[in-house]
């Protein structure tokens, strides 16, 4: 999706900021207006969030509506609910895997194969593959992730780091000497580069 934005807005950096914001928040463009689902979004709010003036937002909308390919995409954008922030509060865990290389599909396949071996119930999967190579998958799981699985995932080619967002109250079960720990409400991160 962002490849389309990159291509069509490469000569319009200010408009590109607006277009990226629309994509990232799931805001559609219909009949010269901006919508989050069925709720019309004020131009001022979008301009402020994108760090541009209102005129740039209007020009972006006009450009999108006058370009068939962009119009076809932007009128179909929808917001979606992402569980990664609330999962630990609900007692679920989030497994974030950051990786490099071009083997996005192979990496994802290997991760899910390992999770299926342990019969982990997956609630949500979000994959992000960016042009600059910052690739990440976030997997919401309804049971604590087995550390044996984490060890195996760390060995998959291309995996750079792993972060677990957990609701586990007893951090002694989670933290080892090789982890870097961050809290929100608690995250445990494994940086594979540090282990090599």
Care to give the gist of this entry?
The chain has helices spanning 2-8, 13-25, 43-50, 54-66, 68-74, 104-117, 147-154, 192-195; strands spanning 27-30, 33-36, 39-41, 93-99, 122-128, 135-141, 159-165, 180-182, 187-191. It has 196 residues and is an alpha+beta fold.
CATH architecture of the largest domain: 2-Layer Sandwich
Strand content: 15-25%
Mean pLDDT: 82
Q: Helix content range of the residues, please?
A: 25-40%
Give the low-pLDDT segments: 170-188
Oligomeric status: single chain
SSE string: HHEEEHHHEHEEHEEEH
Radius of gyration, in Å, reads 20 Å
Quote the distance from N terminus to C terminus: 34 Å
Describe the structure.
With 196 residues, the protein is α+β, with helices and mostly antiparallel strands. It folds into two domains: 2-74, no CATH class; 87-195, Alpha-Beta Plaits (2-Layer Sandwich). 38% of the residues lie in helices and 24% in strands. It contains eight helices and nine strands. The protein has helices at residues 2-8, 13-25, 43-50, 54-66, 68-74, 104-117, 147-154, 192-195, and strands at 27-30, 33-36, 39-41, 93-99, 122-128, 135-141, 159-165, 180-182, 187-191. It has a six-stranded antiparallel sheet with strand order 5-6-4-7-9-8. Strands 1-2-3 form a three-stranded antiparallel sheet. Helix 1 (2-8) packs antiparallel against helix 2. The two termini are 34 Å apart.
